[in-house]
């Protein structure tokens, strides 16, 4: 008997993430690539590459569900769901050590969101940042550029800080000039980076409190790969922040799980 | 180039922009599958006002002879204007193009409605604005008060002092005084030899009766909208009420009567406009004004149906009738004055617990699944009350989504994601409730 597989595609503003699962909800393969200008073409290549690498015939992949900012242009998708629903759905699977997740904080490239769940993983409430890059991955990206750091270096560096500086502007452009002046004043880079993380965490914590965040917090999206953000959020919310093994994959996993169970 | 040429060019550009946005919105409305022909009248009214720029026929008016009175908000009694033989035109505008021009005189944090109306008054050209000989503006919120002051550079403005503590005795006294002052003003407005008519009991009775018929049909429309299987889309109904601003009351009433008859027939034959599986949404907060139907359109495109709203340019506009039994002028004036002040739950009033009562009643009557709370940027009073409304709804377990936006179309995609997620959430809540019952 041939196996059936399910795929979820999370076509975000910065990266396309894809997850391939078998019918027992085991993760078979995953991939992520920069979205570029052709999210549809990128995702087709990703699915084809994952299928080939695992020796799966293309027609064994069923019910592809797309989510993320460019979800509507993914031609392989049988259906689309919002990022909110996908992340909510992925939470239980992604949760490390089967912790009961009641709140998902997703920090993506272009937006951040807080999703509050009830005990059955159903969405109770959600909040998203307004049309502005403050509190998103884009905020970190531009500030990393000013500091001549790669975005992956931010987390480890900030954890070395003993005295985070304060970055007051939430606007990317103003924050950039603030960082430039801190660099000019020869402040330590780890303190600047920690300050950036605290500024971002404060903004997200305010949104989370307003949405009614409950303990049992899962940090997903690109932000989940940054240990500095997890630690700053922990301080800002006074709650434990749990980070899944593949934080960026949570939306795609959720989409794949939705494809598996909903018809 | 002469200055007058430059002004003329600017006017042409504005009118072209306004006409294009209005035409796009009308096309979107007209192309909704299954649109009954009875809706065409309302679309034609909006087209006459914003696309063809020829509103007089729909207002049953002669542009060179009749008196036109511009009004803002829903607390200026149109009965008085009709009784003075004049034509009321509501000028609360929804055009993005003119809101940019209005920013010359309205601060950045001012609301888009005031910016838009300001822009259309400053840059002459759109007839619904230019026709008005005088503009009556109530002092409801900060923005309307200052709008009146700024507009007086372009128009004759008549301010109506609106008391904010509705239940107080002094408020009733102030309001009655204001109504009589407005009456006296309307009787003396002049234009090209035409003068406002003397408002007497007979003319008032006729105006009250005409408006009452409109209100009765409006309530009938609302009760048809409460059907389990939706008979009309919310964005269509919004256009119906919006059109009241630019149509003669009697022609509008005839058209709504025909529409209601049609909807009743659709109910009878079990031919609903939408299926009953859609989450039922109530829009609270700031008004949606043509051509800015962004919010109801997004809700319905994303899988919901707007069953009712509490907007001052929507379901609240024409809800309450005038209670006057005696055919004498004093009693009529009292009835008209009370109808415009007492039931209005605009958040510029305080205390405003009536609003929570109204929303909770609507939630029950219309079997609402979720509330979309619309805040026009800069409308501080509506935003102030969002927490009270959310808390009140928590007892009914009705979720609320607050969205803040203006007339700029640039945020449509961000709003779409949130509204879609809200509707997904309501759908899954519905299916769980159903499972729990069965």
TrEMBL record, chain A:
Keywords: Iron, Iron-sulfur, Metal-binding. The keyword NADP does not apply. The keyword Repressor does not apply. The gene is hadI. This is 2-hydroxyglutaryl-CoA dehydratase. GO terms for molecular function: iron-sulfur cluster binding; metal ion binding. It comes from the Bacteria. Residues 8-259 form the ATPase BadF/BadG/BcrA/BcrD type domain. Its cofactor is [4Fe-4S] cluster. InterPro entries: ATPase_BadF, ATPase_NBD, CoA_E_activase_dom, Dehydratase_Activator_Redct.
Automatic annotation (TrEMBL), chain B:
Pfam families: HGD-D. Belongs to the FldB/FldC dehydratase alpha/beta subunit family. This is 3-hydroxyacyl-ACP dehydratase.
